[in-house]
Amino acid sequence: MKGGVSAPGDYIYFKSQVPLHKIPIGTKQWRYYDFGPKVVPPLICIPGTAGTADVYYKQIMALSMKGYRVISIDIPHVWNNYEWLQAFEKFLDFIDVHRVHLYGTSLGGFLALLFAQHRPRRVKSLVLSNTFLETKYFAAAMPWAPVVSWTPSFLLKRYVLTGIMSGPHEPFIADSVDFVVAQVETLSREDLASRLTLTNDDASIGPLMLSDSLITIIDTNDKCAIPQQLKDEVSERFPGARRADIKSGGDFPFLSRPDEINLHLKLHLRRVGVEAREDLVPGTPKASDDDGGSGGGGSGEPKDDREDTDDAPNGDRSKSNRGAPSSNDSQPPLVPESDDSPNPDDQPKGGSPLEGFSEIMVISLLHLLVNFFVIYYQQLPVGLLTLYITNKHHPMILM
């Protein structure tokens, strides 16, 4: 990551596991992640002005492990609302997705609402976070919008970053800001100019054919770049929508409060009828014929036998496997070394019967040699030498 900020460990793992797709569709270049079981209707995440497809990596990892399909996109180079509608529809046709669930934050939420208004048959539900219904507020705050396409990149980046609330933050909010700032550094001048143009393009959201019951609004209660008045207008427009207020999270709650956001996303998908397929997630244990024979009707989730084996402590694991055949029965259990365990080098010599027997044989041979020398050379006192040998080498044996 650029900007002098080291990438989080979970983001590095995400990049190693989830491929990034880059495809041209018509005149637009699309950059997106697509992860999870393909048979599940996808949740498509649309970022804000400062975001990329990478900012939703925590949602991609968490929801895909639960059996949901998540697609996170970059906003391509589109310069007006009509161009966005045409480009996004072609993208859905290319990935062979006809009806979608959209999750948009900030500008991404506005674009999701725009698509739901003009392509109602293709949108099944919406999740909106810190978004708005019309662009006139941003157009008034940016009088130099007509020349944005000629503005140098460093000025565009500075303008975008000044919109992010500065000052002291809680650590998790500060980390989310650092991550997004690093993502802004990866955006080109055309990326930033086209997104700022969309934000200032004269447009507003009209009535939707989508029922309010299929909309979830997730807003943070602390300060963020979207004024509270604009967020309140969204809530007033959809009074029947399901609301989820987060106490704090800043501009990027999907990064700063991922557990809460992921929970609300899962609840929304279940409520609108999306059935997760956790059985299709690689590495998830599947119920076998042997396991399902004693359950009668069976439960909705397969029983995880690992909680009695792999997840058990070492002491309990041996009890649970007692009496059951195992491929590791022929191998001795691995016991960690400790200071209290006996060391073979520290054992006294002669501690085993075999060692005592070998010393007796050596002493007997010595006696034979002594007798031989005494008989033939008559020079050594037999009793003294024998007593000396036996007492020195094996005190417990007296001859």
CATH structural architecture of the largest domain:
3-Layer(aba) Sandwich
CATH class of the largest domain: Alpha Beta
- Helical residues, percent: 25-40%
The biggest sheet amounts to: 8 strands, mixed
Beta-strand fraction estimate: 5-15%
Gyration radius from CA atoms, angstroms: 37 Å
Contiguous uncertain segments of 5+ residues:
287-357, 379-399
Number of separate helices = 14
Shape, please? globular
Which superfamily, in CATH terms, is the homologous superfamily of the largest domain? Alpha/Beta hydrolase fold, catalytic domain
Q: What's the structural domain tally? A: 2
GO molecular function: hydrolase activity
InterPro entries: AB_hydrolase_1 (IPR000073), AB_hydrolase_fold (IPR029058), Maspardin (IPR026151)
Organism: Helianthus annuus (Common sunflower)
Pfam family, one: Abhydrolase_1
Report on this structure.
The protein is α/β, with parallel strands linked by helices and 399 residues long. It folds into 2 domains: 9-280, Rossmann fold, CATH 3.40.50.1820; 348-393. It contains 14 helices and 8 strands. The radius of gyration is 37 Å and the shape is globular. The N and C termini lie far apart (84 Å).
